């Protein structure tokens, strides 16, 4: 028993001695220095350690604290709080440090690409042409070298961060990931196992699978003989928002990432995790992505060896360049939805794409794209087909001139069918369209594109364009060419439409134009209208109010941009002179413009124009619209409107020699309610200048004559004009025939002076004069109404004053200038029209109703019955 106890005590002493011997017999500093030299020789990295310890029992192991790996003179690559590793005893006898299980806790991994030459790569690996690393203080003697190998790596609670001082925009300049755990098992085997769990901005992710031999991946000297296979599974997010993907493939040269062939497949239910992980790569709101894509690497063009002039490239740098070398071989992808808000990618209205399918069976097979789109109030089905997947890629990304054949068909979803069968209210559209389709076919490429355009529609509601919102076109057809210039850094350099022919019930003609797609580009074009019937245009109900001006007439009652009703505050300091023009005309105010418009027949608000020729010219903030030719009932038209915002103050001017416009347009421009209908002839010239709308209105100067003949007047306008004799007339509501409304207006120092005014409707005629203060729109009119009833004349001079819808009828004061009624003669209309036109030719004045019928008929007509 004593012998057994002695043996046990001796064994314990021996084991204790063996375990403590390394602490006393091994030179810790020398061993630490040897490990540092081995690491630097094999990796090129400097190794720094705090406290270290080695033990032999129960098996050899190594432990260190405050471990730092760094490139000489660069940012530390790894900083770990503690490192523990078990080592193989047999390997040590063969001068090899073989870590069986290398455990790192609390590590910070920092990838920093700096501008310094030695630090300009993410992670340097010893190249084949660099030779061995020369260590400081080496005496040149040949000594046996130690090797370092790893059997397994276990990383917990680590932070991975990166910073790129040389970022070219392909990847974020900085970022970080949290690694909960990373397990690499069988690192010396032919198929190591990878298990990574981490998070990014509270979005968890995992990566699990098998890869090829790690030495072929990280070592430039490893022989790349057999294919390097990998199979990985990835997840992003958690719960119902978790996304899944798999990556399977092989590489011919793993270290240089050459000869890559792989298949990416997966299903992303929401892509929320992907957006959090790659916010710059996915700006749009994507959802429900699933499918398969097969890639191979193009090792000839843009390869890593070419990019570095033959020098070896670090693995991480090669990985960053890999996306640019990937070539798709097969695509089968379904995308549930893509949402682009207004303003994203220069889209004016919100764009919602859904049920998108992208297919290509091989590189030589056609690339097909189809799906549905909702743009603003419009719903479309689209189907596009490129000549081949390979040609589409070359045309899109190659620097060499190349193009690809493209076919695109867009069909509008009929509003009736959409409302009948679609129960999803969010997907419904209130835009009216029936049997609408457009086709594009031609060649598309980086160096330029030419596409043939054709389309037809039984009913089409035009998009939300200023002045056209809600406009309906019936039985429309269009065909022509769409030409795009080379694609540059700022996008398409130019865009034009050539020989576009369009025809519908409402409008027809041809157009060729250069459209502005670049910030400084202008609008140049020629428009030839064979016919335009504005009275046939109809408007669909518009859900939201828009500030538009109708080109068709007076049927729209939206609020317009007014010179009178909406005075602005003074412009902010430093505001450009073109501010007002930009407010009125948007981006076209400062762009060059040269538009020539010719129209054979125009019918607008009941006015028939013939042979109209207009020219719009814009340059450096100055816009001019010239009426070069045109007639209305054989009355030649001529005039010009100029807006000059090239310098302060803004200047405006109009010359009419003469111009004939719909009365509704004139009243709308002046901010007045619609009271008169018919053709208004303008003769004269006026001008103004000012820094804001109110100043422009009050600064009017010049004289203009206005004459409206053979028109209509709203009956409620006549009561104040008739004065006390209004009780003799049963005016009622609606409109009635107007023989004339004419007069001259002289603008001077914020006032408008009305002279030689005359109005005649049936048996009521009014002559007068007066003034209006432009600041508050208050007016005072001296009127002499005449009512002829059953052969008797009734006339009482009066003074009509008012402001903004309110009026007062009073007697003429003694100090007021007396209206010279003798000048008007027997036919006040004829005199007033002649004065307004200043001797120019104009529309014919209808003959006066002389009362040739019975007295009873005259009486009925005077009461507003039995005629116009």
TrEMBL record:
Domain of life: Bacteria
Any coiled-coil regions, as ranges: none
InterPro entries the UniProt entry points to: AsmA (IPR007844), AsmA-related (IPR052894)
One Pfam family matching this protein: AsmA
GO cellular component, one term: plasma membrane
Name of the protein described by the UniProt record: AsmA domain-containing protein
PANTHER family in alphabetical order: DUF748 DOMAIN-CONTAINING PROTEIN, PROTEIN ASMA
Record region (Disordered): 546-577
Organism: Bombella intestini
Residue ranges occupied by any AsmA domain in the UniProt entry: 1-164
GO biological process: regulation of protein targeting to membrane
């Amino acid at each position: 028993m004593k012998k057994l106890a002695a043996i046990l005590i001796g064994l314990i002493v021996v084991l204790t001695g063996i375990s403590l011997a390394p602490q006393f017999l091994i030179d810790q500093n020398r061993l630490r220095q040897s490990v540092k030299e081995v690491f630097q020789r094999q990796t090129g990295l400097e190794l720094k350690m705090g406290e270290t310890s080695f033990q032999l029992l129960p098996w050899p192991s190594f432990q260190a604290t405050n471990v730092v790996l760094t490139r000489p003179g660069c940012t530390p690559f790894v900083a770990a709080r503690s490192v523990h590793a078990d080592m193989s005893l047999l390997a040590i006898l063969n001068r090899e440090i073989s870590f069986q299980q290398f455990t790192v806790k609390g590590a910070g991994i920092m990838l920093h690409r700096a501008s310094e030459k030695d630090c300009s790569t993410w992670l340097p690996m010893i190249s084949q042409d660099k030779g061995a690393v020369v260590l400081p203080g080496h005496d040149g003697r040949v000594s046996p070298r130690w090797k370092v190998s790893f059997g397994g790596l276990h990383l917990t609670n680590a932070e991975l961060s990166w910073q790129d001082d040389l970022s070219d925009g392909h990847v974020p300049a900085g970022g970080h990931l949290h690694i909960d755990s990373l397990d690499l098992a069988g690192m010396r085997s032919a198929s190591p196992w990878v298990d990574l769990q981490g998070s990014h901005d509270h979005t968890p992710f995992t990566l699990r699978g098998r890869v090829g031999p790690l030495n072929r991946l990280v070592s430039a000297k490893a022989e790349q003989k057999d294919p390097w296979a990998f199979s990985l599974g990835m997840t992003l997010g958690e719960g119902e928002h978790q996304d899944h993907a798999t990556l399977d493939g092989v590489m011919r040269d793993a270290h240089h990432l050459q000869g890559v062939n792989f298949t990416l497949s997966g299903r992303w239910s929401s892509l929320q995790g992907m957006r959090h992980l790659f916010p710059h790569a996915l700006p749009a709101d994507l959802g429900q992505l699933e499918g398969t894509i097969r890639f191979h690497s193009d090792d000839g063009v843009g390869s890593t060896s070419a990019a570095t002039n033959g020098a070896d490239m670090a693995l991480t740098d090669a990985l960053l360049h890999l996306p640019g070398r990937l070539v798709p071989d097969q695509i089968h992808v379904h995308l549930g939805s893509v949402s682009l808000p207004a303003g994203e990618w220069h889209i004016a209205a919100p764009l919602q794409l859904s049920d998108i399918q992208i297919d290509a069976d091989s590189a030589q097979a056609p690339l097909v794209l189809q799906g549905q789109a909702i743009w603003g109030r419009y719903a479309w089905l689209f189907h596009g087909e490129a000549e081949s997947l390979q040609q589409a890629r070359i045309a899109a990304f190659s620097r060499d001139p190349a193009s690809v054949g493209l076919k695109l068909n867009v069909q509008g979803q009929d509003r009736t069918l959409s409302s009948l069968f679609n129960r999803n209210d969010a997907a419904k559209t209130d835009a009216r369209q029936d049997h609408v389709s457009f086709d594009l076919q031609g060649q598309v490429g980086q160096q330029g594109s030419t596409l043939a355009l054709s389309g037809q529609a039984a009913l089409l509601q035009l998009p939300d364009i200023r002045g056209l919102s809600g406009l309906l076109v019936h039985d429309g057809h269009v065909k022509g060419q769409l030409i795009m210039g080379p694609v540059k850094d700022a996008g398409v350099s130019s865009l034009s439409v050539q020989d576009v022919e369009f025809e519908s019930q409402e409008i027809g003609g041809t157009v060729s134009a250069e459209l502005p797609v670049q910030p400084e580009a202008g609008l140049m074009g020629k428009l030839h209208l064979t016919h335009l019937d504005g009275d046939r245009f109809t408007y669909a109900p518009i859900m939201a109010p828009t500030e538009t001006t109708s080109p068709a007439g007076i049927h729209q009652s939206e609020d317009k941009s007014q010179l009178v009703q909406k005075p602005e505050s003074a412009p902010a300091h430093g505001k450009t002179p073109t501010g007002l023009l930009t407010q009125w005309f948007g981006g076209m105010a400062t762009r060059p413009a040269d538009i020539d418009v010719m129209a054979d027949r125009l019918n607008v608000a009941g006015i028939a124009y013939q042979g109209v020729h207009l020219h719009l010219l814009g340059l450096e903030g100055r816009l001019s619209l010239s009426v070069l030719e045109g007639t209305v009932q054989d009355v030649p038209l001529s005039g010009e409107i100029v807006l000059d915002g090239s310098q302060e103050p803004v200047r405006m001017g109009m010359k009419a020699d003469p111009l004939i416009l719909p009365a509704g347009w004139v009243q709308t421009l002046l901010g007045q309610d619609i009271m008169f209908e018919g053709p208004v002839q303008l003769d004269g010239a006026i001008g103004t200048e000012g820094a804001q709308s109110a100043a422009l209105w009050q600064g009017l100067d010049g004289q203009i004559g206005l004459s409206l003949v053979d028109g209509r007047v709203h009956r409620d306008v006549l009561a104040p004009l008739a004065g006390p004799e209004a009780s003799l007339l049963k005016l009622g509501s609606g409109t009635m025939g107007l023989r004339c409304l004419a007069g001259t207006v002289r603008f001077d120092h914020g006032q408008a002076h009305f002279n030689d005014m005359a109005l005649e409707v049936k048996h009521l005629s009014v002559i007068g004069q007066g003034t209006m203060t432009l600041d508050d729109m208050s007016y005072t009119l001296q009127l002499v109404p005449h009512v002829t009833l059953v052969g008797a004349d009734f006339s009482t001079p009066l003074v009509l004053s008012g402001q903004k819808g309110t009026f007062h009828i009073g007697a003429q004061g003694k100090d007021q200038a007396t209206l010279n009624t003798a000048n008007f003669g027997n036919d006040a209309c004829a005199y007033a029209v002649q004065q307004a036109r200043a001797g120019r030719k104009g529309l014919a004045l209808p003959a006066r109703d002389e009362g040739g019928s019975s007295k009873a008929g005259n009486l009925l007509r005077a009461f507003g019955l039995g005629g116009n």
